Amino acid sequence: MAFVHGRNAAFYLTDSVATQRNLTAYIDSVDFSMDEDASESTVLGLGARTYVPGLYTGTISLSGKWDNGSTATPDQYLDQLITAGTITPTWVYAPNGSAATRPYRTGACVVTNYSASSPYDDVVTWSATLQISGAVTRGTF
Fold it and tell me: Which of the four CATH numbers 2.30.30, 2.30.110, 2.60.40, 3.40.50 does domain 6-140 have?
């Protein structure tokens, strides 16, 4: 087995003008989830329910430390993606980083949530939820 540490992960998202942005330095957690519908196919005479696979979808949850150091930050990109209302950005998630031969997943999404939190006794943080739209492709760098 070849286990990997989460610190190696990388995440990219296209901005409102379709430029791919490396958000890795601003993120401290990526949660990638895929789900598939199970459509019931039970008929009379069966003693247990049966199902067939249906459509799949997924979400990506991101979080990190809010950065006021420049304009090229997740705050700028995510805000623009939500307020534009018509943009379906592409994303790339590489759980083991983006070096040669490492696996990644990619697809399109809709940014459904972006929030910032300013606790009085801690660092300002941000989080976002991306709803996957369409197919997810798996590949290697």
Answer: 2.30.110
pTM exceeds 0.85, yes or no: yes
Contacts of residue 55, defined as CB under 8 A and 6 or more positions apart, other chains included, come to 36, 37
Which pair of tokens denotes residue 37?
């519908």
* Domain range summary for the chain, segments of one domain joined by +: 6-140
Question: What are the tokens at 5?
Answer: 């540490």
Per-residue pLDDT of the chain (141 residues; tens, 9 = 90+): 789 999 999 999 999 999 999 999 999 999 999 999 999 999 999 999 999 999 999 999 999 999 887 777 898 899 899 998 888 999 999 999 999 999 999 999 999 999 999 999 999 999 999 999 999 999 999
